[in-house]
Amino acid sequence: MRVTGTGHASMRIDTAAGSILCDPWVNPAYFASWFPFPDNSQLDWETLGDVDYLYVSHLHRDHFDAAHLKRYVAKKATVLLPEFPTSEMEDEFRELGFTKFLKTRNEEVVELDGGLKIMIQALTSPTDGPIGDSSLWVEYDGVRLLNQNDARPTDLSVFAELGHVHAHLLQFSGAIWYPMVYELPQSAKTAFGKQKRERQFDRTWRYIDDLKADHVFPIAGPPCFLDDELWQFNDIFDDEGNIFPDQSVFLAEYAKVGGTNGIVLLPGSVAEVTTSGATTTHPQPVEEFFANKVAHLEEMRERKRPIIEAEKASWRHPEVDVLKELKQRIEPLLDESIYLAKGVGGPVRFDLVGYDGDSVESIVVDFPGKQVRPYADEKVRYRFRTERALVEHLLHIGEVDWVNSLFLSCRFSAARIGQYNEFVYAFFKCLSTERLQYAEGWYDEHERAVDAEDITIGGWTVQRRCPHLKADLSRFGIVDGDQLTCQLHGWRFDLPSGRCLTSVGHKIRAHRVGEEPAAAEVPQASQPSS
C-alpha cells in the first residue's frame, strides 16, 4: 500500500485494486484565515486527482475544498459517503458534478473491486464536525490503514478487531479558536493554551496506545496563518501556550513518551507500507524543512497576500440590513428550538465593528425571549466582537454554519461569564431547519434520562421525534387516516404497525388515543449517556 502525503489531512492511497484520495484541501479556508502547512498548492494535482475513489471525512472547509474538488478531482471517482444524519455532503458533491456514490453503513466493512476493503466509522453528534465526522479504515493484501484524521471516537476497538493496523494517521495539533480569541490577560491565555496543548498530545498518545499500529503518521494540522492580523497564531514564537504545534514538535514530544515509530509526510512524501515495515521518501529532508519553517512561512505569506486581499475585498455588503436579516433568519429557529435554547439559557451579544474600525452596533440573540433585537444594556454571559463585514457576508451567502466559517476564522474576540457552553456553538452551527431539527432530536434522545416524550396528533399518540432525522412531529407531522407523514423530509409511517413506508429500520411508536399501547411499545427508562 502506497501512501502519498498531499498536505494537512489529505493523502492519496494507492493499491493494485484502486486508489483513494482523502480530504484534499488547498485553497484558504474560514475567511482566508487558514492555509495548509506545509504548502501543497504546487503539487501535481491533475495527476493526484485522477483516482478511483474519493473520501472526505467531513464538511469542515479544511477537508472539503469545493473549488479544488470541482477543478482537479476526476468526476469518474466513486465518492465514499459516511452514514451521516443529513444529506448535506452528498448534495454538495452532486453540485460539484460527482455522480457515483457508495453510501456506506456505519462500521460495516465493504469489499470493493479487486479485494480492496474499506470501512467508515461515522460520528454523528452535533459536536462532531459540522454535524458529523468520520474515519476511514482500508485493507488490501493484508496491509491495514486507519485514517482517523480529526475524528474523536470514544475508542478504536472496532478497528483493532478487524486485525492489526500497520499505518495509523491521526490529528495531533489544534483546530479551534480557544483560547486565543478570548479577552483574557496574556498570562491566562498562555496558561489555558498550555493546558490545551498538553491535552491534545495526551489524547493523541491514548489513541496511539489503543491501536498499537506499526507506524504513526501525524496529520490534520497545523494550519498556518498568513494574514498579518493573524500571524501571531503560528507556532514560531517559542510560546508554550500555542495550540498549533507542527509535525516536528510531534516527533519530539512523542519521543518523550517512548514513541519511535512516527513518520512525517510532507506534501509529496511517499510511504510504501507493507506488513513488515515502511519505506518513506521525501521531496526534501524533513528536519531541514522544519528548521527553516519561518522562512517558508514568510515566503508563503508574500505569495498568498494577493489571494487574502482579494477575499477581504469581497466581504462587504453594505446593502445588507444586518439586524433585519438576522431577525428573519434566526427568530424562526429560536421558535423551533427547545434543547439548544434552554441550554444557552440567556442572551448572546454580537458587537459588530463598522467599516471605519470604530463604530459598533450591538445586537442580541435573546434565547429565552426567542428574538433578535438591539442590545439593551443587560448582562450577557456570552459576547462576540467581530467586523460587521464578516456577518454581512455570512448573511449574503446564506451560511448555515457560523462555526465552520466565522468562529474557525479566529477573526473575532469573545468574552464569557462562567464555563464554556457547548449549546452556544451548537446553535450557530445549525442555522437551518434541517440541522436544527437534527440537533434538537439528538439532544432529546441522548441528554434526557427519562421516558421518551409523546404527542397527540390526528387521534393518535406518537413519539414526538421522527425516527428519521429527529424532526419535531408536533410541528412537521401530518396524520391522514392511519398514515403519518413528516413534512420535513417526506417520510411516511404506517401508524397501526409503526412500520416506516419510506425506508427500512425506522419504526415509529404509536397507538390510538384512548387505547393502551402494546407492551413492547412502552418506552423503558434509559441510563444517562456519558
UniProtKB/TrEMBL annotation:
Residue stretches spanning the membrane: none
Gene Ontology, cellular component aspect: cytoplasm
Keywords: 2Fe-2S, Iron, Iron-sulfur, Metal-binding
An example Gene Ontology molecular-function term: metal ion binding
Domain Rieske: 462-522
Alphabetized SUPFAM superfamilies for the sequence: ISP domain, Metallo-hydrolase/oxidoreductase
Entry keyword annotation includes Iron: yes
InterPro entries to which the protein is assigned, alphabetical: RibonucZ/Hydroxyglut_hydro (IPR036866), Rieske_2Fe-2S (IPR017941), Rieske_2Fe-2S_sf (IPR036922), SCP2_Rv3818 (IPR057330)
Record PROSITE patterns: RIESKE
Domain of life according to the entry: Bacteria
Protein name in UniProt: (2Fe-2S)-binding protein
